[in-house]
Structures are given as C-alpha cells and as structure tokens.
Amino acid sequence: MPEPVLSPAGVKAVDARLEKAGLLDLAMEEAGRAGADAVQQFSPVGRVLLLAGGGANGGDALVAARHLHALGRGVTVLALPGKHPLTRLNRRRLKAVGVPVQALTVAALRRSLRNSQVVVDGLLGTGFTPPLRPALQELVALVNGSGRPVVALDLPTGLDARVSSVAGEPVHATVTVTFSGLKPALVYGPAAHHAGQVILADLRLPPGWALREALALRPTTAELTALLPVRFADAHKGTAGNVWVIGGHPGTVGAAALAGWAALRTGAGLVTVHSEAQVPLVTPELMIRQHPSLLEALKDTPAAKRPDALCVGMGLGPHAVQVARQVLTWRLPTVLDADALHPELAGHGHTHCLWTPHPGEAARLLGTSTTNVTRDPIQAARALQERLGGVIVLKGGPSTIATPDGIFVSRGGHPGMASAGMGDTLSGILAALLAQGLRTEQAALAGVTLHARAGELAGAQHGYGLTATDLISQLGSAWETLKHPTSPTAAAWSEGVLMNGSRNELD
Predict the structure, then answer these.
(1) Best label site of 18, 24, 230, 437, fewest CB within 10 Å?
(2) Residue partners of 475: CB distance under 8 A and separation at least 6
(3) Per-residue pLDDT reduced to its tens digit, 432-479
(4) β-pairing, 391-394 with 400-403?
(5) Cα-flanking dihedrals φ and ψ of residue 97, to 5°?
(6) Cα angle value 68/71/73 (rounded, 5°)
(7) CA dist., res. 130 & res. 156, Å (int)
(8) 169 CB neighbour count, 10 Å cutoff
(9) 494 falls in which pLDDT band (50, 70, 90)?
(10) Would you state the pLDDT for residue 501?
(11) CA-CA distance, 340 to 384, in Å (whole number)?
(12) Is residue 428 within 8 Å of residue 311, measured between CB atoms?
C-alpha cells in the first residue's frame, strides 16, 4: 500500500475520524509504543529522557515512557502542563505504574541530559506554526547541544510540517517516528535534514482513512517496479520502441547524446538523435542525424516515418520553442526538458506530454521564485500540471510526479546525483519507457524509480561524485535489482548499499 503524505489539516481530519469512532486513545497507544520500539532499536541501552509537550504529541511521549518502563528501561519524564485530554489521561496512567513526571524547566533539562543516553522529543507536533517561543527555543538548543541521539515523535520540534523550509533552529533528530502518514517537512529540503531517518509507524488505521486525506502518495518499490515493461523472447528492435531525441546546439550537444544513450540502456530498440550540431559518438548503436535546420527537417517528416516517442529540448538552443510546437502537433508521447520547458508552450501540450522541470525551470514556468517552488514542491507540481496538462516530473531529492489523477513522491536516489547531465539521462529513460508502450503516468513513475536505483548503484560503486555516464552504465543492473529483488545482483546491491550507507532512504 502506498504511503500517504499528509498536511496538518489532513492529520486533524484523520484524528477527528478516530475520535468519532472512539479509537483515538488506541491510536495514541500505538504511536507511543512505536516510539518506544524505535528507542529500543536505535539506542537499546542506557537511560531514556522523554520530553512531553501539552498536546497530543506529549501524550505519545508519555505512552512511550510507560512502554519503556515496562521493558525495564530507566526513564526520566519532563513534561509541560497537559492540555489534551488524552495527554492528561496518560500522565495519570504513568503515575499509576510508578513513573514520576517532573516539570520541564531549563534546570531540570540540563540535569537530566547529563544522566541520559537518548532523548525522546514529544514537545510539538504537526499543529505547530513557527516561530518557537524563546523558552522552547532555549530547551531545543540544550537538546541539540547535548550530543545525545534524539528520537522525535511525529515531527522534530520546531519544524513546520507543511513546508520544506526551516525557521529558527529546530530539534535535530537522529530518527523520526511519524504517524498516520508522512509530512512534507519530513520528505523535502532542509526540513528533512533535521528529521534523520524517518519511520512511518503502522497505527493499524481503518483502510483508506489516511489515504483519503493525502496531499500525495509515495508508492512502494514493488508497486513502482510492477510498472516496468516485460520483454518476451520473440521481441525485436521494431517491437522495443523507436525514440527520437531532438536537441543539441553547438556547445550543448552532450545533453542530447546522454539522453539518447540512456534511452538505449533503458531498452529502446532504436534511438536517433536529431541535431543541428555535430553530436559526439558516445556509443556506435546510437544513430545520429545532423540537419541544417531542424524546423525544416521536422516539417518534411511524414507521419509514417515518425517515432514511437520523442525526447525534446536537451541543449536545443534558440529555436527550441518553435521546434517543440512543431513536434507537439504530432500528438505523440513526448518528453519535454531543458530548452523546451518554456512558458510560451503552455496550452500547446496534450495528454501524452511528460514535462520534466527542475525547480528553476518550474519557477520560470509558473512565474514565481525557485524558493517558492522548493518550499512546497507538492503545490508547485500541482500548479504545473494544471497549467501545462499531461504529467509533470518536478525533479529533486525526491522528485514529485503530478498526474491528472493525483500527486506522487519518488523513492530512493543518491546525493551524488546532483551533477550535470542527470536530468538529460532521466529524459532519455522516460522516452524509452513511453516508446515501449507505457502510459505517460506509468512511464513517469517507473522512470524516476529506475533512474534513482541506477544512481544508488553508481553511488555504491563510485562514492560521492557521480557523473551521468556512471548512472547510465548501471541502468541494466538497476532494472535487474528492481524486477528480480532476490537475484544475486540485487543481494549484492543491498549488501553494498547498506555497508556504504549510500541510500537516502531504506524502503
């Protein structure tokens, strides 16, 4: 089942359903137990310091303290006055099993940090809006300065659940155990850096309650892998898809070559780069067609000679808009990237278009700033889809895929993928999948997954600094590890990645 990404309003709606059904107390019990389990997993020995706020997040911490006490762990509980009814109830329960609750003060926190090996942050949750009050900011600074590992419940204190940006200094968590669904702040940008490893706890909610409120979904790796095409023994190049890459201007021909090479490695039967400049021969299997004028060449291409899918824009140059408009009239599955991502093309797309902007390109398309795009990628992707139609892949770590039917968040990848040519490579992958018969939304989801896995494999082999060619060379192995997760290749990848710590997230 996919993992939902929830806004604070979505969390509130789920909680309201639970309360109406008389299940909210049971959900808090599940949440607290999940927090205790995380402490046991990541810091199995030593005294535990639990910080409880006055809201529901504080109640989760009090439940966690009770479970840790039952497991024989030494616990110290520092709490603010309880405001939520269940928080007050769980404070009484904790007292009943013999665990005292002390007032949370600066002096008490300083004293308790000296005697504790791990801190549980249950101060503030999804209802918080920055900035932190000075008194809480002082407490957060003490926690961050202690050097103790921190297990945050639902959300590190000080983060705004809605956005990727950070205001002030939030708690820097080692692990965050979140409930009901992921939150944008745990997925994107600088905010996610404060979350550490994120665990989505299974609260055994009634099926569909959280999904119904989701801003976006993060499909499982198995769901994404199932979208990859299957090739049978009687396949030939004519059935494997014909891709045209249209791009390459003097000085930027490498972009088109990378896209073409990636399309070949993703299984396209025939790939041709059409360019007005001389394209380097990166591999002899890649067909190269140089034209004095792309516009004239495309005008003269009869329908019977057109490919199964197009990849347009990589290093295309000053005539990119005119060229893109021309090929868009063909109504073929089309990936648009780089120079073809122009505001003038709004209204010229169709349902088979796959637009692939990075945040800067997205800002230009929306007439806003890059900061606004990265602050709320889900909203930006939704706005792009409404403006351009088709399917949007808003590239990033993670990427956000917007379709007419919903928003999806990608999995995996490697930090070393932040280098030139990675976007061109992704465009070639997407075009190859379109040429092999995948629908636009399927190609987007499967292609981003394949691209990310190849990046992980390349990262495990090369370390931090990756090139696009490193990633392309791993596409075959990436396909193997996704389609056959029990194969020797997949096992070797999993072992290597875990040893090297190169994955952004473990599925």
Answers:
(1) 230
(2) 262, 265, 266, 429, 450, 454
(3) 999 999 999 999 999 999 999 999 999 999 988 899 999 999 999 999
(4) antiparallel
(5) -95, 10
(6) 60
(7) 13
(8) 13
(9) low
(10) 44
(11) 15
(12) yes
Is-contact 243 427, C-beta < 8 A? no
pTM: 0.93
Helix or strand (DSSP H, E) at 169 = none
If one counts every other C-beta atom within 10 angstroms of the C-beta of residue 155, the result is: 32
H or E element that contains 402: strand 400-403
- Greater model confidence, 249 or 212: 212
pLDDT single digits (tens) 350-373: 999 999 999 999 999 999 999 999
Dist. CA 148–CA 71, nearest whole Å: 21
**Residue 36 Cα to chain centre, angstroms:** 26
Q: Longest Cα pair distance anywhere in the chain, in angstroms?
A: 85
What are the angstrom distances between the C-alpha of 233 and each of 154, 269, 489?
49, 14, 22
pLDDT of residue 490: 65
Pairwise CA distance, residues 245 & 255, whole Å = 10
Q: What is the dihedral of CA 194, 396, 160, 166, to 10 degrees?
A: 60
Sheet of 400-403, strands arranged across: 3-5, 216-218, 406-409, 400-403, 391-394, 353-355, 334-336, 309-312, 242-246, 270-275, 287-290
Q: What is the pLDDT of residue 282?
A: 85
Give φ, ψ of 111 to 5 degrees: -65, -45
- For 9, the token pair is 């309003």
Nearest to 142 by CA among 167, 168, 171, 115: 171
What is the model's pLDDT at position 300?
A: 83
Alpha carbons 424 and 313: distance in angstroms, whole number? 9
Q: How confident is the model over 123-139, as a mean pLDDT?
A: 95
In the block, which residue shows the tokens 């007419």? 404
Q: Which of 308, 261, 271 is nearest to 476 (CA)?
A: 261
Contact 36, 240 (CB under 8 A): no
DSSP calls for 336-390 = E-GGG--GGGTTS--TTEEE---HHHHHHHHTS-HHHHHH-HHHHHHHHHHHH-S
The string of pLDDT tens digits covering residues 36-54 is 999 999 999 999 999 999 9
* Cα distances (angstroms) measured from residue 468 to each of 1, 262, 430, 487, 505: 32, 9, 15, 25, 21
**Three-class SS of residue 39?**
helix
Measure CA of the first residue to CA of the last residue in the chain; give whole Å: 13
Whether the predicted pLDDT of 491 surpasses 80: no
> What angle do the packed helices 488-500 and 475-483 form, to 10 degrees?
110
The owner of tokens 């599940």 is: 30
Q: What is the DSSP letter of 280?
A: P
Model confidence at 234, in pLDDT bands (50, 70, 90)?
A: confident
